[in-house]
Amino acid sequence: MDKVQANRLILLGTKGGASVRKGSPRPSSSALQIDGKTYVIDCGLGVTRALVDADISLSQMDGVFITHLHCDHLLELGPLIYTAWLSGLNRPLNIFGPTGITEYWNSFLAAMSFDHGVRTQNDKRGSLNDLISITTYGEGSVASLGGLTVSALRVEHPPVDECYALKFETPKSKIVFSADTKYFPPLAQFAYGADILIHEAMLDAGIDALVQRIGANPDLRQHLEARHTMAPDVGKIATAASVKHLVLNHLVPADDPEFTDAHWHDALSQTWDGPLSVGKDGMVIDLPNS
Ligand SMILES: [Zn+2]
Ligand SMILES: [Zn+2]
Q1: Ligand nearest 181 Cα, by number?
Q2: Burial degree of 222 (CB within 10 A; 0-12, 13-18, 19+)
Q3: Whole-structure pTM over 0.90, yes or no?
Q4: 202-228 pLDDT, tens per residue?
Q5: pLDDT score for 261
Q6: Rounded to 5 degrees, what angle do the CA atoms 161, 163, 168 make?
Q7: 250 C-alpha to center of ligand 1: Å?
Q8: Domain residue spans in the chain?
Q9: What is the dihedral of CA 53, 73, 99, 82, to 10 degrees?
Q10: What sign does the CA torsion over 236, 237, 242, 244 have?
Q11: Which of 175, 190, 277, 288 has the highest count of CB atoms within 10 angstroms of its CB?
Q12: Fold of 8-285
């Protein structure tokens, strides 16, 4: 039976960074369902289970995009694809990532060579490699997939040289992911007029509490400020870009009960007065259909 799929964004993992603690959200991953196709953006730990729990069949993925090779965006790429293969994936799947993505994939497959050998030789399953193609992208056009075009803007996320904001455009919708970036004004032009901007965000007041709570080196604040964007600056980008809906993800802090949605709304109140969603794992946001 044909199922008419809604066009939607699903936030699968919304915390910043790779650590996980009891009750914490998952590291970064999202899915976009557009015109019956499913695309996954970033593959932090937990993405496989999160997709299944969001009622998305692993064998129905149409493309995977990695914004940069930090582990909180990459760690579960291989396990996701491998599990999809063992869950019935039987059509080509393209993985798009920056320089180094091919080496990641080849190394992952090498690490799985025993199991892969067993399943292809004994179980007569077709090789996973025959289904997967890897595309290394840079700034500019990334992919043209039917009515969907994907393009990339290199953002500033030191010391990572290649980290890319990604824009997904169809005649009906424009969705932009900031990826990890320090405050980067050119992103406003890239995201101009987007229906949804999904932007990473930090809450100033939450950082010192985070350093204390997890016993991190006090340099963590400096490290975060050099590489990520404070909430009020996220609002500046969204306002300059005239986006229709701002969604915060890659939240820092993400799992401190002292900091609620109200704190995030407060932090943005001076710079953004449009629709705002504070990302939560499993949050679903409809895309425009007309
Ligand atoms: Zn990250
Ligand atoms: Zn990063």
Answers
A1: 2
A2: exposed
A3: yes
A4: 999 899 888 888 777 778 888 899 999
A5: 96
A6: 155
A7: 7
A8: 8-285
A9: -40
A10: negative
A11: 175
A12: Metallo-beta-lactamase; Chain A (3.60.15)
Q: Which ligand is located closest to the Cα atom of residue 73?
A: 1
Q: How far is the CA of 123 from the centre of ligand 1 (A)?
A: 38
**Ligand 1 center to 93 CA (angstroms):** 24
157 CA → ligand 2 middle, Å: 7
99-105-111-114 Cα dihedral, nearest 10 degrees: -160
Ligand nearest to the CA of 26: 1
Helix then strand then coil, % of the chain, to nearest 5: 30, 30, 40
Strand partners of residue 201 = 251
Ligand 2 center to 70 CA (angstroms)? 5
pLDDT tens track of the chain, all 290 residues? 345 568 999 999 999 999 998 889 999 999 999 999 999 999 999 999 999 999 999 999 999 999 999 999 999 999 999 999 999 998 999 999 999 999 999 999 999 999 999 999 988 889 999 999 999 999 999 999 989 999 999 999 999 999 999 999 999 999 999 999 999 999 999 999 999 999 999 999 899 888 888 777 778 888 899 999 999 999 999 999 999 999 999 999 998 889 999 999 999 999 999 999 999 999 999 998 75
Q: CA 175, 57, 45, 22 torsion: positive or negative?
A: positive
How many angstroms does the Cα of residue 38 sit away from the middle of ligand 1? 22
Compute the distance from residue 130 Cα to the ligand 2 centre, in Å: 30
Tokens 């900031």 belong to 178
Q: Compute the residue count for the chain.
A: 290
The ligand with the least distance to the CA atom of 42 is 1
